[in-house]
Structure formats: structure tokens, C-alpha cells
Amino acid sequence: MHLVIIRTSLSYVDSQTYNIQEIGLAKELIKQGVAVSLILPGETELENHDNDYSIYYLTCKMLQQSIGFYEKLWKTLDRIQPDIIQIHEIGMFMSLYTLMWSRKNSIPCVLIQGTYEPTRKPLQRILECLFNMTFGKYILTHVNAIGCKTPRAMEYLRKYSRFQKMEVTAIGLDMSNFDQCYTVTVDWREELQISSSTKILLYIGVVENRRHVELLLEIIENLPDIYALIIVGEGSQKEVLKKRTEQSVYKSRVKWLSRMTQKELVGIYKIADLFLLASDYEIYGMVILESMYWKVPVLSTATGGGVAIIRNNENGWIIDSFSLQDWVNKIEKIFSDSFSYNSIVETAYRDVVEKYTWERISSNFMRLYNTAIQNQNHAGKMK
């Protein structure tokens, strides 16, 4: 079987700083004898065949990440000649564009859905809903199998099609990105001048409105001096919030770091005590799995990924609120019971290792691929 996985969202992602799901899945599938090619957005056209899997970086023409196309997609697929194709999200024009090639060439196509609600931007929301009601329904009707990253994603698709068979196919963590043999060369507590008795709260990700990083700053301002906050990442709000921090009385307790590679993040995870994810919306949230794996429990809002991974008060905490006082009270309560805290840390780690690695999850994708091939063969016989 030769599988082609296509990133239909046309935003560039750096594999050094982000745990790219398509690459993690590809690494595991090749161990099972599946030939895998990836098509990802690139600033220039490039092919990489050095690994056991192939990556084709294709340039794009687009208005935004959901409206556009790879310039040489069809030619590339003609050259690769895959046995099966995996696309993502019904709201992406690239999903439709790829499915058109798939149907033209009678190649089975699998849809993986992560989105579980429309965008909150008014005009884009209208356009997205119109697309889903027309082309999105076409995609759902004509793909050969459908997997959903979370139960919420499945509920979302049911709005557009009640009849197609779907199943939940969770996303795994690629632990090779962290390399267990990697040696932490920086004592980050010493580097950041954080005492050994200080509880470290951590946020890793884009510094933008929907992640409510401003709330995290307000939280640290209202917690006692035994707490510090580390923020790792870049984003549109960073400079404004960083300047605000530098002018505040609590500036010594907030540490700003630039985007870091996966291996560099190991040292940060190792000193952190609690990961905070105050996000409006997360399709999955790879940082949740990463934190749990490095024994940093997670306090998250009730996003799609958060509620799919975290069992409240068992392997982490869900807080369905953006109230400052609710967050402050919850954090203080978490650290007031060391027995419960340590139990949750160990349960979270065990859950990732036993349930959320690609080694554990890839079998669900293989079942989905085999279903797609069978459905395609059946459809061919019916013609």
C-alpha cells in the first residue's frame, strides 16, 4: 500500500518546533510496511526522499489557509500514483480539489476531521458554512471512509451528514521528536533565576487572542509569590503583553522565551509543575499530550482536544470558565493536595504511553484505510 497524506490546511509548519501529526503517523506506518508520501506546504518546491518516507513541499496559491491550492498537486499525484489518499477537514478547498483527482483516478480517499465548530470571524463564518453545506456535503458523500479526531468533530460532521459512517481516530504523540537520549544542557531554573521552591506554570504556543495569554498574566499577578510563569512562543500579542509585563510589579515572575525546538523544550517541561491552556478553541492540542508525557499535568478549558484527552480530576483538570478568580482558586487548590497532584501526574503519563502514541493508535488508521479500499472496490463493482 502506498499512502499519500496531504496537509489540506495551507499554513506552513516547522517540524523542528511542532509535533507534526502527519509525520508522526508516517513514521509508524512505515514500520508496518506501508509506503508513505507526505504533501506539505512549502515556501519553495522541494522533495525530500532521505527518510523512509517522502515529503513533497509544494508551493501554494491562496487567499488564506483554507482557500487555495497546491500549484502542482495533480501533477505530483500523477507521478506518485498512490493506492490511497488521506485528506483533512471538509472546510478546506484543498480537500475538495484532492478528492476531485481521487475520483477521476478511482483512488480511495479517507477524510480525517478535526474542526468541531465554525470560525468565529463573522464573514469567514458565513463563507465556511456555505462551503460546508455544498462542497462539504459533497466531500462527505464521496470519500470512502471518515475518521474524526475527537467526538466533538464527529458531532460537527453530523450537522452536514447523518448517514455517513464515521469513527473516532485519535491523534498520537511522536515521542522520537524528544529523543529520550537527549541530554538537557541548560539548567533552566538557574538560567531564568527561578528558585527551587517556586511552582512553575507553563504555556507553550502562539501568543494570540484565542489562547488568552493576557489572562495567564492576570493569574500570575493574583497568585502568591511562590508561583512563576514561563511563556514559550511567538505571536501577534507577544510584544504588547511583554511590554506590559516589564512595566508591572510582578515582572520578575514572568519569563518570556522565544519559540523552541522540540528537543529544547524537554528542559522546560522538566522544570514545570502545571501547564495552562486557556484557549477558546483547540482541534486537538498536541501540547496537552506533550505535557502529560513529561509529567506536567494540564489545566485546560473545555476545548475539543481538552475534553477528549483529559478526564477531569483523573489525568488532568478541565475548567469551563475564563473567570480570573476561578483560575486562581483552581490553581491554588491543585497544589494544596500533593497526593492527588502526584496521582494525576502518574495517570496522565501512563495514559499517553498506553493510549496516545502513534504505535498504539496507528492500527485505527490502518483499519480506516482498509475500509476505504473495500468501499472503493465495492463502488467500482456497482458501476
Describe this structure in words.
With 383 residues, this protein is α/β, with parallel strands linked by helices. Helices cover 43% and strands 18% of the residues. The protein contains 14 helices and 16 strands. It has helices spanning 21-31, 73-80, 93-104, 122-142, 151-158, 188-192, 213-222, 238-246, 262-271, 286-293, 304-309, 324-336, 338-355, 358-382, and strands at residues 2-6, 35-41, 46-48, 54-58, 60-64, 67-70, 84-88, 109-113, 145-148, 167-168, 199-204, 227-232, 254-257, 274-277, 298-300, 317-318. An eight-stranded mixed sheet has the order 3-4-2-1-7-8-9-10, sandwiched between helices. A six-stranded parallel sheet has the order 13-12-11-14-15-16, sandwiched between helices. Strands 5-6 form a two-stranded antiparallel ribbon. Helix 7 links the parallel strand 11 (199-204) and strand 12. Helix 3 packs parallel to helix 4 (122-142) and helix 7 crosses helix 12 (324-336). The longest helix is centred in the last third of the chain and has 25 residues, at 358-382.
